[in-house]
Design brief:
By secondary structure, the protein is of the alpha+beta class. It has three domains: 4-70, no CATH class; 88-147; 166-237, no CATH class. It is 54% helix and 7% strand. It has ten helices and four strands; from the N terminus they run βααββααβαααααα. The chain has helices spanning 13-19, 21-29, 41-47, 52-64, 88-123, 136-147, 166-176, 184-192, 201-204, 218-237; strands spanning 4-9, 31-33, 36-40, 68-70. A four-stranded antiparallel sheet has the order 2-3-1-4. Strand 2 and strand 3 form a beta hairpin. Helix 5 runs antiparallel to helix 6 (136-147). Bound molecules: zinc ion. Zinc ion binds at residues 120, 124, 130, 135, 138.
Length: 238
């Protein structure tokens, strides 16, 4: 995963690098952009055998000593593998499955909050003592139902499962961005108008597919994208 940091030095960079191993690694591992050093935290940390968090603390200290200034861009999670297993692919698969479950759980919570708010604003019959815009009683009831596990079945918001144009648009999108390497999730993010470190909004919001399918179920886009990608990659390999 990538964390990119532009960095400026007050002391001339080579002088600082001579007495600071982290700065030396940064100079080695970074690209120069507009007079700033842009680098990935995990690659520099690996290079000097530091944890990403240690490197961050180190940079923070240099910042406090007014040796450097830096700015954090494109934050992402990064994992440290403490014990390398025999089958690293199965570890990756387990992590993906676990993150998928976390995602489902978070989406369910968000759906619940959304449904409760929609109920309060449009469907509440004021039977629980709500009045005008004051809907504390019915919101409390919804929250109680959530915590007692009574609202499992209907919390999920029904969005369009598919759109007539989704597959065709995915194909056009892939063809017009043939140079990029997409995953189904990356395509779903772009179609929902969500930036990510690998596909930042500053660049990708320029495509007219950006956010176009925000009303279509995220997973439905991922499924469509998966099928189109298999077809597209297959066609370009042969
Ligand atoms: Zn109410």
């Amino acid at each position: 995963m990538k964390n990119r940091y532009p960095l400026w030095c007050h002391t001339p960079p080579p002088v600082l690098a001579a007495r600071d191993v982290a700065v030396a690694a940064i100079l080695k591992k970074s690209e120069m952009k507009d007079g700033q050093y842009v680098f990935h935290i995990p690659s520099v940390a690996n290079n000097i055998r530091m944890q990403a968090s240690e490197l961050l603390n180190h940079l923070q200290n240099l910042k406090m000593k007014r040796e450097i200034t830096y700015e954090l861009k494109d934050q992402a999670f990064c994992y440290t593998i403490l014990e390398v297993p025999n089958d690293i692919c199965s570890l990756a698969a387990q992590l993906t499955k676990w993150l998928g479950e976390v995602e489902t759980c978070k989406v369910r919570k968000l759906d619940m909050v959304y449904n409760a708010s929609v109920f309060a604003t449009t469907a509440c019959d004021k039977a629980l003592g709500c009045n005008n815009d004051e809907h504390t009683p019915c919101l409390q009831r919804k929250i109680q139902e959530y915590f007692s596990g009574d609202c499992d079945a209907d919390t999920h918001i029904q969005m369009d499962q598919n759109s007539r144009f989704l597959r065709a648009d995915t194909k056009v999108f892939l063809q017009s961005n043939a140079q990029a390497k997409f995953t189904p999730r990356a395509i779903a993010r772009i179609f929902h108008g969500l930036g990510s470190p690998a596909f930042p909004s500053a660049t990708w919001s320029r495509t007219h597919f950006w956010g176009r399918y925000a009303n279509v179920e995220f997973r439905a886009i991922m499924e469509a994208a998966k099928e189109e990608l298999v077809y597209f990659v297959g066609k370009n390999v042969t």
